[in-house]
Design goal:
homodimer, 244 residues, alpha+beta, Alpha-Beta Plaits, 2 domains, 10-stranded mixed sheet, 5 helices, globular
Chain lengths: 244, 244
């Protein structure tokens, strides 16, 4: 038996997210079906993250076990020929049998893209969040600093998600601006449910003057979801990289 | 009667191009239908360019004449509420009655985007042309220089298009590289049918070593379509700006 690690890019626009569901098409199902056509056996793949509907990935990682004699590096092209245009296997490789895409992960980087202009957005609308009112970029940049470090981020998760602890360590959070486009890059050892989107929404509200940049520390410390900003739309989010 | 100038952004992925057709949905038809819902009269809009299926625009210009009392600058928001998500009116303004989006145009800038990497592309696939083999960027940059100036570009048009002359002046043609993404910017007083896509295809073939960068001058001078490169796919093309 071999354990195969896949690195995957996808455009999440037309999917109900990563994880297999009964009545909706998901990315996991598409990839499993494609692999099954090659190995002629039932396959179950494990993803590093369960991205929501509309979220994209440049570097999603997943793994599956197989007795197939297909050389590990050949899976890339073989699966790609079975997949639709909006899912791409970037790399396939053999890894030790105990490698688990989710549990072995040491951290992840996400990117969140904002288009800040008054006018309606047509191009890239599926890869961004549109904010019409002018954002104060330097306030947003300053607010980033207070997120960095080891904190209890329970104010930045959608309630109902059951995790043992909401303590996470953000090792990097910074913004890049190119004209009307603002990109937020965030790296942490793990993320709570909707954490990146709520941090993005909070930073947008700082940029709009609805949340004061000085208040980020106390919002984190008080740990109340209602003090943080809105959950920014899934379209702006891309899973960039998973670390092992 | 007023003459209204519109500046338009659109994602051409789901349209059979700009110009109205009988059996296919076009951008012109969508915008005309939206305006007619507002002004309650038959409207015909004139576009600066007839972009092909799959081609996008950030700064398409069009004009239409109307007796409506709607203030010119209000047309933007009014039309946007009637349009689908992938078409956006960026600006609406009154212009002199003799303004004609096509005939009054003094020039245009297009951008052509190439993603140069071995791996399959999922994200941005509708906004780019994917080239798997490694492109020689400096050869492509050098080849750009010989296109600039006033030349007969008959080698760079799709045959069958009837125009009085194929002499055009390219005032700028340059490339920008950011990792795996190469953007080609081209500005001219006018473009022949498929001219940007054939120049993009020719530059790609220079980058692949299939056409020598030293041969661009003679390809232009000989004027034979078969000497130039392939017509690169429409997905990579964006009409950036029209000058008046």
């Amino acid at each position: 038996m071999k354990n195969i690690k896949l690195t995957i890019e996808y455009d999440g626009s037309n999917y109900a997210g990563w994880q297999r569901q009964n009545n909706h098409l998901t990315i996991q199902e598409c990839i499993e079906n494609s692999i099954e056509k090659i190995v002629k056996e039932k396959v179950s793949i494990t993803g590093s993250s369960r991205t929501d509907a509309g979220v994209h990935a440049k570097g999603m990682v997943a793994n599956f076990k197989t007795d197939s004699s297909v050389p590990p590096e050949r899976f890339r092209e073989a699966i790609n020929t079975k997949l639709p245009d909006d899912i791409a296997i970037i790399k396939s490789e053999e890894v030790p049998l105990d490698f688990h895409a989710r549990y072995s992960s040491k951290g992840k980087t996400y990117c969140y893209t904002i288009i800040n202009r008054y006018e309606k957005v047509a191009i890239f609308r599926n890869y961004s969040c549109h904010v019409r009112d002018k954002l104060n970029f330097s306030d947003m940049e300053e607010a980033c600093k207070d997120f960095i470090g080891k904190h209890d981020f329970k104010a930045f998760k959608t309630s109902g998600s059951s995790v043992k602890t909401s303590i996470r360590t953000i090792s990097d959070l910074h913004l890049e601006k190119d004209g009307e486009i603002i990109k937020l890059y965030i790296t942490a050892d793990g993320f709570l449910y909707n954490m990146v989107r709520i941090i993005a929404g909070t930073l947008i509200e700082v940029g709009l003057g609805k949340i004061k940049k000085e208040d980020i520390k106390s919002i984190i410390n008080l740990g109340k979801r209602e003090d943080a900003g809105f959950c920014a739309p899934s379209t702006g989010l891309v899973l960039e990289k998973v670390y092992y």
